[in-house]
Design brief:
The chain is of the alpha+beta class. It has a single domain, classed as Creatine Amidinohydrolase, CATH 3.90.230. It is 27% helix and 27% strand. Helix 1 runs antiparallel to helix 2 and helix 3 runs antiparallel to helix 4. The chain is globular, with a radius of gyration of 17 Å. The mean pLDDT is 98.
């Protein structure tokens, strides 16, 4: 069931979203050569707890894994698509890219956002990967309007990514969000005809999150059972915003 939010609920989600945005901006400024992904983890947890919020990912039970996720952040480097786990051994170096995915719960409502940051100088092709993924997200956000359908969002991401020679990940998708971190509907980054295609209505909030590979779309799990990587070893990028469907058009809750 898709839960539509009231104006008051959207304001609460806005508070969660702005906290996520603030933390993500700080982490982006921290990213650099010699920084570890565990450094980012510790900084994020302090900022979230200092704001009176709760990390949404830490302790989140995932039935497919049969365990609770042990960290505040997902930090996915280079060929890691999503759910990379922070580590003191993962030292960022020039040429890397790191996707930082963060969620918070504040006063009963969730915010969730992700961005992929370059470390030092990256190759022109990887730079283009990040740009195209950001563009796909912005184009998809513009489709989050009453009267459109879910596939308008999904198809927009797919067309932009594939027309630029990249591929969208099939196994991981966006989602509804509100008083739960993951709500209906699922939001794939491609048109999945086996998926439902609901009409978008005011009050719906979607976490739209293109996950884009420089090479082929295939993914596999590492032995840690959390980290998803590209099958062909190509780089991957990930950007995400929470977007409310309103009569005034899309309202991105996770940025000012």
């Amino acid at each position: 069931m898709i839960v539509r939010k009231t104006a008051a609920e959207l304001e609460k989600m806005r508070n969660s979203g702005l906290l996520v945005w603030k933390v993500l901006q700080e982490l982006g400024r921290m990213v650099g050569e010699g920084v570890t992904t565990l450094d980012l983890e510790h900084a994020a947890e302090k900022m979230i707890r200092d704001a009176g919020a709760r990390p949404a990912f830490k302790g989140y039970y995932v039935p497919a894994v049969g365990a609770k996720y042990p960290f505040v952040l997902c930090t996915s480097v280079n060929d890691e698509i999503v759910h990379g786990m922070p580590s003191a051994k993962r030292v960022l170096k020039s040429g890397d890219v790191v996707s930082v995915d963060i969620g918070v719960e504040l006063e009963g409502y969730y915010g969730d956002s992700a961005a992929t940051f370059p470390v030092g100088k990256i190759s022109p092709e990887v730079e283009r990967l990040l740009r195209v993924t950001r563009e796909a997200l912005e184009l998809a956000i513009d489709k989050a309007r009453p009267g459109n359908r879910l596939f308008d969002i999904c198809g927009t991401v797919q067309r932009h990514v594939e027309s630029n020679g990249f591929s969208v990940v099939r196994e991981y998708v966006g989602h509804g969000i509100g008083t739960q971190l993951h709500e209906e509907p699922q939001v794939p980054n491609y048109v999945d005809r086996s998926n439902e295609n609901p009409r978008l209505k005011e009050g719906m909030v979607l976490a739209i999150e293109p996950m884009v590979n420089a090479g082929k779309p295939g993914s596999r799990l590492l032995p840690d059972r959390w980290t998803a990587v590209t099958k062909d070893g190509s780089y991957s990028a990930h950007f995400e915003h929470c977007v409310a469907v309103t009569s005034n058009g899309p309202w991105v809750l996770t940025r000012p």
